[in-house]
Every structure is written in structure tokens, then in C-alpha cells.
Amino acid sequence: MSSGPIFTDFSKLYGKSTKEFYSEKFYDAMDMESPDLKNYEQICNNIQVNIKEKEKMIPVCKKYLRFLDTSKLWSGLFWKFDVSLLLNYWLYDNITHIYGTTQSDIIGIGFGALQLIWSTFNTNQIEKSYREKCKPEPKMVNHEDWKNRKKLYDYYVDFDTLFGQSRIFFNNTCEAYHQKIKEMIPLCTYFERKCSPPGSYSCPEMFYICREKNLETELENLPCHEEIKSRGDSNSEGDTMNRPPVPKLASQSRGDDTGLQGHAASTEDTQLTPKSSDIGTKVSHSVLGAAPVLLTATMLYRVPGFVGSVEAGQIV
């Protein structure tokens, strides 16, 4: 007699993660393998994407459905923050890597295929409120500076862990906190510059979190700060002493250096600019074998709320 499907409670995967912060634990748990992924093979093996991307989209589909399917078991785990944003950042990160672009009309094929599966997937395990909340929704995260926005939201999710009164440092955890806070300083400076004064830039809702704490002061108050600082100073002195003098080229100047660094720093945000397009049309012409099920998918994309209804104004 065969046994029924085996389900892995996502909260158990989350608890298995050795990462320090909530956001890191979430992404780590989403990436984990588990025996119950085979429960979704039949559905995900038929995902409506091009053959070129299908092999890599299938595991993403399985892990997404595992998360959605066991929502009754983990629904109380993420009450402090909007888990749908973390989920869509995880999907967006994976899909943009698979397709090699952030162009909305191209990655929309992957998101649209997942939306079609989401719309037809139904089991008693799914918590109704989380079914709607955890819909694949690219317009939530599709911005030119999405990586910075993701880091900012991760910072918001991890805020209580970073600055909570009950934090206790063990072994190397202080250095992990130090690194996390240190990374937030230039990130908050970036959004401070973008959001002030208010203008055409769509400032992230969670930007206010940057003003909750003086990050420089918090960094200095960590018990490991002086040790890390002295270690860095020592390394810098050693590098300076051991480094042979470099002759200065006549054509070299600080202005040239600054210009090159500025260009390099802006490359990530200026390349692969998202374009608005009717994704439903793109799907119907791009996916191999325009079968009747694909026509159904195309119709679904035209329903308000599906990828096809994403407006250009959502992309900053």
C-alpha cells in the first residue's frame, strides 16, 4: 500500500538554516532541497516556458509550490513583515539569472508561467490569505535599482535582530552584525540622496528605517568594533609598507579615477533597463508549441492583476 505525499514544513527548513538573520534564513530555506519537491514534478515539468529556460525554471517552480503548499504550517512564522516581498525578490533574483536580463517583457514569460500555475494550483494545505499574498508579482520588485531595494527590505526585516535589546553575541556573530551594519551605511546614503528632495523617483516605503538608527554610532558600539578596526588598520599599514612605489603616469589624475569609479558604480543600475510591454503577447509568440493551454495562459495574462496588466509606471 503506497503512502500519501510527504510535505516538508517550510518552518522546519527555515529552522535548519545556519544563517544569522531572518532574510538570509528565508532565502536559504527557499533554496534547500527536500524529498517533497517530487510532489510537484508533474505540474512543474509542464511549465509553459521556452525549452532553453525550462530546465532551470522547473526547480524554481517546485520550490515556489512547496512554499505555497505548506502555508498553513508556516503562516505564523512571518507575522512581523510582508513575506510576499521576500518571496518575490527570491523569484525575481532567480528568474533574472535564468533569462540573463531584467527586461520586463522577457522575464515576464517566466513570471507569467508561474502565475498560470499559481492560478490553477489548489490543495487543502494552502492558507487562503497567503494564496493571494504569495502570488508571483513582478511589479512589486521590478525596478532598475532592485538590488539596492532588496537590500533595504532585507535590512528592514532584520532590524529587530540587528538592534534588539535581547541580542547576544556568540563566537563570530558580532562580526556578522558588524558587516551587516557597515553595508547599510552606503545603502542608506544612496536612498537618502535619491529620496531627497521628493521628485520623480519612487522612494521605497521602508526607507524610513534608515533614519531609525545612527548607523555609525551603532557600529562603534559593537563589542568587536575596535578589534575589527585595529585589524583593518594593521592590514592597511602592512600593505603600504610592502607595496613598491608606483610611478605616476603623466596622463593620470584624480579626476580620471573618480570618473571611472563613478561609471563602474552606475553600470549595474543602467544596464538592462526594463521595458514595458504586453507580456501576454510576448508569451504567445515566444513559447514553443502554441498549444491550447498556452492560449488559456495568454487570456489569463490579460486579466487585471496578471503580468500582462503591469503598467510602465510601475517600473522606475
TrEMBL record:
Protein known as = Vir protein, putative
User: Which domain of life does the protein's organism represent?
Assistant: Eukaryota
The segments labelled Disordered in the record are 228-278
Q: Compositional bias of type Polar residues: which residue ranges? A: 267-278
- One Pfam family from the UniProt entry? Plasmodium_Vir
UniProt xrefs under InterPro entries: Plasmodium_Vir
